[in-house]
UniProtKB/TrEMBL annotation, chain A:
Pfam short name (any one): ABC_tran
Xref: SUPFAM superfamilies: ACT-like, P-loop containing nucleoside triphosphate hydrolases
Topological relation to the membrane, as annotated: Peripheral membrane protein
Places the protein is found: Cell inner membrane
CDD domains per record: ABC_MetN_methionine_transporter
InterPro entries per UniProt: AAA+_ATPase (IPR003593), ABC_transporter-like_ATP-bd (IPR003439), ABC_transporter-like_CS (IPR017871), ACT-like_dom_sf (IPR045865), MetN_ABC (IPR041701), MetN_ABC_transporter-like (IPR050086), NIL_domain (IPR018449), P-loop_NTPase (IPR027417)
Protein name: Methionine import ATP-binding protein MetN 2
Keywords from the UniProt entry: Amino-acid transport, ATP-binding, Cell membrane, Membrane, Nucleotide-binding, Translocase, Transport
GO MF annotations, alphabetized: ATP binding
Domain ABC transporter: 2-242
From TrEMBL, chain B:
Gene3D superfamilies: MetI-like
Listed name of the protein: D-methionine ABC transporter
Organism: Marinospirillum insulare
PROSITE patterns given in the database record: ABC_TM1
Domain of life assignment: Bacteria
Amino acid sequence: MIEFFQVNKAYQLGKKSITALHTTDLQIPTGQIYGLIGHSGAGKSTLMRLINRLEEPSAGRIEVDGLDITQLDASGLRSFRRKVGMIFQHFNLLTSRSVADNVALPLRLAGELSKSEINKKVSDLLARVGLENHAKKYPAQLSGGEKQRVGIARALATDPSILLCDEATSALDPQTTGQVLELLAEINRDLGLTLVLITHEMDVVRRICDQVAVMDGGVIVEQGQVADVFLHPQHPTTKRFVYEAEQVNEDEQVQNLAEVEGRILRLTFQGQATYEPLLARVAYQTAIEFSIISGRIDRIQNAPYGQLTVAFKGEKLEEAMQMLAAAEVHLDVVRYEEGHHE
Amino acid sequence: MNNLLANVDWYEIWLASFETLMMLGGSLLFTVVLGLPLGVLLFLTGPKQMFDQKALYSVLSLITNILRSLPFIILLIVMIPFTVMITGTSLGVAGAIPPLVVGATPFFARLVETALREVDRGIIEATQAMGATTKQIIISALLPEARPGILAATTVTAITLVSYTAMAGVVGAGGLGDLAIRFGYQRFQTDVMVVTVVLLLVLVQLLQMVGDRLVVHYSRK
């Protein structure tokens, strides 16, 4: 468990003080994939770097598994850092060292294993990330995805319990992004590592995160289970991220809505309900008419969900809504029909 | 052929070449030994670096700048008492090495500082995140990553030192420069001048070639 108690970070820039992270309380449970999403300058990078004290907090206390890391001395901090792996957007591999030497570096620095033990471990790690045939190559000879795999193998070398991923897929193409995310999810599953993941793409959060915190201006504006935040975003920043991911053009949608009559509802299906012929059944039984204005069916982690914006017309509207609610469909009224009275 | 190079005493030339190489080798060795740590220190204490020490950096920076702005010919003369203190003589190869080192070290240190600044900050951050000590960061990450830049700096410094050794000839250091001045210039023996110039040119070419090869060999980018 990673816990922030009233943590705050301010920089001194000349005579001005700039707050990168306003006073924050945060809990990241062990074994979770925790996403931090925000635009650049939102404070997510600062928050992540406080966890391994690449940034020193200005105030507050940070505990990792009950250990107050803000109190660690230099040597305590160094051994703590070995338990926290980190991967980077631009990989940050040493260009002068081969793939195997890059992965071996944290072990050499720690100085606890013999040479043959290190070699054994390095080949195990390279096998885990699928690079066993690239050990002797230099980073410049690898593709972006391969470089990030080396980064992951290197981060795992000292058997960390936490892995910090700083925009780990932002420099990769969509296909490679998918592969790297799968690898990260696999590592989380197999090794029980806690992953803290910075991104500016909601899609990354949707695919692998358990929980997410949305950041804006050095503040966590919204946090919770990914499904809740993704399907029912509250804060404007969150909504923007979700719409971006769904490629919804808000202006266009408003225009579309103006052209349809009736009551407009947003229906959110999760789990099995996603595949049921619910709309047809409700329409048949209540004789309402419906037209789908927009919709999306996809997965959050591995759970299917569907979200439809639908216009309903008919006498038995309330009854239809009750039937949908009874089938565990989440309903939001986007717009009431003309002449509706609460 | 012999008529063309009538004044050339090949034994003298060989001796002078040997002296030049000795001066170059000795001074380059000491320059690297002293300049590399100085360059690392300049880098570490520089603005926004790992040991940002404004006062120390300013002092180091000022000293290197003063030494670098002093014309070498003046430094040679100013250094004479110190040189005698260190080596017992201000003449010959031994007398030339201290001023050469003092002249070249600040120059080399600055080049090393620049080469270190070229290292991606992300690599330093990654090494810090592994739990490395500062010493480990310097030895395992910074210096290997900056190696091509440091080799290029060493090449430039070596070539600068070749021209400095020629100047050192003026104050009795020996070497090809000395020969060129005493025979080629003062006795109007143009053939000696041509031979020494050609030899210096070959030496500089060789240094540049070897330096470039090493840089390419160690560049993995």
